[in-house]
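hey so i finally got around to running the thing on that chain from the lab meeting. sorry it took forever, my laptop kept dying and i had to restart like 3 times. anyway pasting the input first so we r on the same page abt which one it is
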Amino acid sequence: MSRRDWIVALLAAVVIVAALWVLEGARRGVEITTALVGATPVTTYAKSGVDGPAVVVAHGFAGSRQMMQAYALSLAQAGYRVHSFDFLGHGRHSVPMSGDVGSVDGTTRLLVEQTLAVIHHAGGEGAKFPTVALLGHSMATDVLVRVAAQTPGDEPLVLLSAFSREITADRPDHLLLVTGAWEPGLVGFATEALQMLDPDAQPGRTVSAKGLTRRAVLAPAVEHVAILQSRTGRAEAVAWLDRFYSRSSAPSVPPTGWALLALLAGIVALARPLARLLPDRRVARAQIPPRSFALATLAPAVAAPLIAVPLDPGVLPVLVADYLALHLALFGGLQLVILWRAGVPLGHVAPAASLALLVYGLGIFGLALDRYGANFWPTPERLAIIAALSLGAVPFMLSDALVTQGGRAPLWQRLSARAAFLVSIAIAVALDFEGLFFLLMIAPVIVLFYLVFGLMGRAVALRTGAATAGLALGLILAWALGVSFPLFSA
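ok and heres what got predicted. didnt touch it at all, straight out
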């Protein structure tokens, strides 16, 4: 490695160690155990010897227990016993979601019943506190409001990025709404919920009327996902529950969000100097002629959705996964054919280097993400889904690696190639909005994939060739999609 590589490696290592210090510090003193309530995986966070009030924590759509752990740990450090669980079809729950997702009597009813079972588990026999507090994000906010209406107590609720028409001027009794300042639509909803009790109230106030108490706060500089790491949100959640239970706790709220970003960024940055240790297998490649590049990006973008939408097989138990596998296969396959006809060879594949990238991406980055940020480990039921997705993801990422020349193509070409795929997905949604609506969630996942794994792959491609990186990235993409989207059975 060069002197510059050594400096990058050293700085990345320092950042990683510092981030781990913060993230592990947030866990220090908290016992973390996992159990099954029926088929529902539940993780309990509690300080040793502390028997505080129970709190049930629920995640949003396409989320997991891990995504809620910043709040769970802050509450546990404040002396609460926190029970965080995976909804049906999410995270490591092996049972798919089912029912009509658009009907209150369909999927929503099943999620309410599941939550009630977890509450019963959290309350336990002879519980010291008669109520179980509830905290949820996004999709879970509507579920928890409905749950609160079916429980005998007047438990406190903390709702993050909330939207539920079940919130009225008469219920729920004790409600805290935390909304990201960068969620304008939901800020309006939180304000509306507050003004049901006081027409002049604005976020930042606590109001009471008719036996109800309600507070709305804005978490600064966060949106729908970053709110899950908001220090303001976590401090408000602890204070709200302390007020209800007449407790006094002033736990520190560490900057775990920044620490998580630093950890993942450090792992990505470390990939480049580590890639320099791989055997040098670089092969000189001529730049793709502009006409061939345009054809290789635009033709698949248009053809893939036109062919795939009518053929949508609908066989995999994951929302839009089977369509996505077909779309990826068609896009990548067409692009490979066009590149081959233009005289762009696939090139050499170095199996050891592909394996190294796979292990680093899934084993190092993936395990760090799974421990501190979001579920990244598949249940046995998802392995077949990952295998099916790989049939489309591998040719797609191979063609992506070739069309971007393993990261050597000009920046505008690399951006154009990736934008073409997002346009292709948009065309598919426009052709079948009702059936493929959830494909819209793919866009941010793909962008994050390129920012994270794409940078790792580029480091390997610059050393060992485009095809080597493309093969590993295809398998990583299939894995990432396979663990992210909810299982669903009609």
